[in-house]
Specification:
By secondary structure, the chain is mainly α. The chain folds into three domains: 25-117, Fumarase C, Chain B, domain 1 (Orthogonal Bundle), CATH 1.10.275.10; 124-369 and 465-490, Fumarase/aspartase (Central domain) (Fumarase C, Chain A, domain 2, Up-down Bundle), CATH 1.20.200.10; 377-441, Fumarase/aspartase (C-terminal domain) (Ribonucleotide Reductase Protein R1, domain 1, Orthogonal Bundle), CATH 1.10.40. 61% of the residues lie in helices and 4% in strands. The chain contains 21 helices and six strands. The chain has helices at 3-6, 8-11, 30-36, 39-42, 46-63, 68-87, 99-111, 124-160, 180-204, 224-230, 240-245, 248-274, 302-326, 340-363, 368-375, 382-391, 396-413, 422-428, 436-439, 442-447, 457-484, and strands at residues 165-170, 173-179, 207-208, 235-236, 282-283, 365-366. The chain has a two-stranded antiparallel sheet. The protein has a two-stranded parallel ribbon with strand order 3-4. Helix 5 packs antiparallel against helix 6 (68-87) and helix 6 crosses helix 7. The chain starts with a helix and ends in an 11-residue tail after the last helix. Residues 1-15 have low confidence and may be disordered. Bound molecules: arginine (ARG). Arginine binds next to helix 8.
Amino acid sequence: MSSRSRDPKSRGEAGAKKPWGGRFSDTLDPTVERFSASIHFDRVLARHDLRGSRAQAHMLGRTGLIAADEAETLLRGLDLIEKEIAEGSFPFDPALEDIHMNIESRLHHHVGSVAGKLHTGRSRNDQVATDLALFLREVCLAIERGLLGLRRVLVERAREHVDTILPGYTHLQRAQPVRLAHQWLAHVESLGRDASRFRDAHARIRRCPLGAGALAGSTLPLDRQESAAELGFEGPTRNSMDTVASRDAALEFLSHAAITMVHLSRLAEELVLWSTTEFGFIELADAYSTGSSLMPQKKNPDVPEIVRGKTGRAIGNLVTLLTVLKGLPLTYNRDLQEDKEPLFDSVTTLRDSLEVMSGAIATLSVRTDRMAEAASDPMLLATDLAEILVRAGVPFREAHEVVGRIVGHCTRKGIDLRSLGRADMQSFHEAFEAGADELLDLERSLESRSLAGGTARVRVEAALAEAETELDAEERALEAREAADPASSRGMEAS
Ligand code: ARG
């Protein structure tokens, strides 16, 4: 900071007169003003702030804390502001620090000194907590929508590929054959748990911060029940100190977002691997890949790569807020302003990642021939040979050992497992009643994996039907929750 900026006389117009003025005789140092302003990011909360302010104006009017016509004037001013924000003509001013004071100051501009009555019994501390609660409810619903959409795409693509067989992998080594539908339904499972986490988080945001004041409520007879009801909460929060100090709803969102991004990243990694020449299992649509500026032959899987890369942010954002919170004494501390950028960033990152992954998966083409070729490796059925022995009464450990010897024999001799005839097989164990070629059959192998959760066709068909029914039910329930709180389900157009 230069000494110039510390000299009160040199600040002139740059430093704003504080709106809570009385206590202060000097304006804010310009560097401090820039350092502490949050309007360049918390403007995302404009709609939520207006919603909270309307509830506040209604409540003040109905309780008689302000006159009915004053409440109407305030509401008229708030309408004008909403219009300005929607049209992009609202004059956001960094000298007014944050979204709350920008809106309040603009209200003065529109309706004059009665604007000063809106903040009756309210502090920016309960105000920002209210804005965040409204914002979080909205984004939880929107992410649930996004997760529903991606799962629908995966289930639709899985339907097309019940009979597409590929190797399933452990340690990225070919392990056992599976249906592609089974593999895609695996991702539907993890993303379904993610959706339920956002549903839980949404349900927990059920008490309204408004009326908690700076930290200890108010001497004025506010009606917290009424403003809570108007904003769609079950009731007011139960402890004014906790209300202005806590940010765990944001933490919860960030943590669910980090987990979901990790799941998307693993799915993305699969797409990256599968689109290599080495695997050649899929080809991404042109709209979801890019070329190289240097190598004309390249088609790069940038979309899944960026999703994988952005997962780092989502994890970082969670760690950022955990770290901001960990040393804070009750109640409000200005550090809490650092909750917003990580939160907004995770919202955008997750929302966009869900959208591009849905598009990439909906449009990719599957190279069923390449998958089939990889799945035809007879070694994938080695476990089946061991299980044949188990059925004949051989202890599994011994059976595993026997088949291990067979595999070693083939590898050393460089021969195909299927070339071992009945006599060869019996030389390893007399319980083998046929040659390997007869014992091993890909289709039979898959079909015999018919336990619950398995990859047999009946199981996969049932899992698909179950997933479809569940997604339909989830969609209906989500629609009902969106309708119950229409202001909270406008998607995330402002973020
Ligand atoms: N911009 C502030 C924040 O996001 C609003 C609350 C300010 N409260 C205060 N006491 N300075 O945390």
